Inverse folding.
């Protein structure tokens, strides 16, 4: 059995959904299909998820929702009409959206989750309807009572029983159409994963049914060694390990959600990144291991939106528990951290800026000064993390020096260096304004003579 997931651009229009049907029909082993909400049809289009977020915020702010509802419903109605479906499915979708809008929203986060999830949920219903209309027996399956998630407000993840519940789908005769991005708690409360979370849903499904392959269809032929929007014609990657892909996805490789690898990693299920618009292309295979090569670097990625909490205290290294107490203060603000480079008398905590507000920054600074008696505590913002990734890095000497020299040539200052104990990645913290320059410089350093691998 093959589980396949189709992203937003793959299901953005009737034309795209027809391609999805053709791909699924071409291989009878493709029995479970996870789908996203309709994405952009062109560069200046608006994703349905963004329309739904606008709708939810209008409800919360007590604005006029009719135009917002119409904008969402019209997208589905146009798709349904272009697929030759009658108005029944469009009416069902409109009824569903109106029902969600009138539900209790005392908890704004959960209300927003419920509205956003309608994008995937209704698209799955529409696609199942179309498959049946063209003679492909299909069945829409709701995540309710199957994809069981943890309780709010913790970061969303699937509970062990979700895999057991979903395992029964491996016995299906029909094609299963499953909405991505969301599930339900044991109490029946809908929760969503982060944006791009349909990748996670597909991975959970693949793991639950013991699929031989998880295909992730998007709008590019493969994974590239660097961002093609920054680097001209980067080399394509034919094979990459779970660890390499995890590191690259973490730092900006939007082609695959960084949390989506864990379910398939545990089962050793290969992942194939493929293009809905060019399904004959081999794509990129993500594997537990791959043959050793003489290239030290597999890919380079960059992501912005980081902040640094700098803490200094003389003789910090002699103080038992200092690091634990510092991280506990951050934990109590419900903030996760990314890196903690340190010296004898100072430590920096790297975190996503999106988690910070002027209020929690002020509380953290005050508590660190008062409770840990730190000499200096301050936040700095507007940083990017540049990540160099490769299984072969541990076997190559001088790689960090080459990278640092390439960064120095751009005129940028390296604010932070961090290398994991696995030696699969090397992370540089830099000011965000130098991100693209550095990415181009590092690509030139490590890939200038490589055409493909």
């Amino acid at each position: 059995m093959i589980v396949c997931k189709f992203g937003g651009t793959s299901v953005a229009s009737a034309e795209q959904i027809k391609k999805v049907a053709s791909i699924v029909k071409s291989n009878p082993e493709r029995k479970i299909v996870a789908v996203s909400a309709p994405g952009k049809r062109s560069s200046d289009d608006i994703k349905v998820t963004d329309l739904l977020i606008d709708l939810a915020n209008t409800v919360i702010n007590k604005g006029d929702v009719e135009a917002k509802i119409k904008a969402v419903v019209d997208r589905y109605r146009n798709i349904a009409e272009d697929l030759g479906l009658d108005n029944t499915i469009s009416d069902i979708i409109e009824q569903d959206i109106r029902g969600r809008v009138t539900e209790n929203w005392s908890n704004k986060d959960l209300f927003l989750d419920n509205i956003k999830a309608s994008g995937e949920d209704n698209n799955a219903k529409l696609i199942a309807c179309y498959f049946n209309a063209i003679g492909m027996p299909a069945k829409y399956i709701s995540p309710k009572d199957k994809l069981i998630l943890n309780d709010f407000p913790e970061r969303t993840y699937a509970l062990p029983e979700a895999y057991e519940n979903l395992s029964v789908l491996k016995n299906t005769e029909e094609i299963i159409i499953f909405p991505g991005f969301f599930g339900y708690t044991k109490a029946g409360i809908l929760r969503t994963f982060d944006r791009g979370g349909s990748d996670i849903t597909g991975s959970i499904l693949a793991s639950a049914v013991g699929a031989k392959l998880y295909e992730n269809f998007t709008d590019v032929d493969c994974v590239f060694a660097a961002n093609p929007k920054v680097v001209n014609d980067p080399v394509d990657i034919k094979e990459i390990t779970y660890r390499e892909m995890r590191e690259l996805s973490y730092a900006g490789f939007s082609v695959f959600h960084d949390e989506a690898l864990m379910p398939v990693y545990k089962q050793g299920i290969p992942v194939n990144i493929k293009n809905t618009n060019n399904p004959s292309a081999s794509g990129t295979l993500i594997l537990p291991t791959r043959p050793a090569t003489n290239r030290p670097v597999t890919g380079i990625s960059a992501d912005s939106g980081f902040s640094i909490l700098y803490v200094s205290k003389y003789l910090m290294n002699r103080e038992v528990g200092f690091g634990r107490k510092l991280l506990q203060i951050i934990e109590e603000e419900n903030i996760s951290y990314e890196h903690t480079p340190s010296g004898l008398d100072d430590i920096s905590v790297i975190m996503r800026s999106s988690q910070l507000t002027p209020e929690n920054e002020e509380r953290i600074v005050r508590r660190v000064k008062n409770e840990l008696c730190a000499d200096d505590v301050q936040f700095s913002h507007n940083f990017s993390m540049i990540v160099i990734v490769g299984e072969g890095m541990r076997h190559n000497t001088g790689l960090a020096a080459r990278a640092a020299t390439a960064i120095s040539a751009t005129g940028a200052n390296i604010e932070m260096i961090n290398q994991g104990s696995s030696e699969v990645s090397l992370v540089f913290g830099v000011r965000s304004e130098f991100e693209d320059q550095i990415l181009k410089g590092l690509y030139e350093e490590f890939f200038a003579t490589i055409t493909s691998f």
Summary: The chain has a mean pLDDT of 93. The first strand starts at residue 2 and ends at 6. Residues 249 and 309 are 24 Å apart (CA to CA).
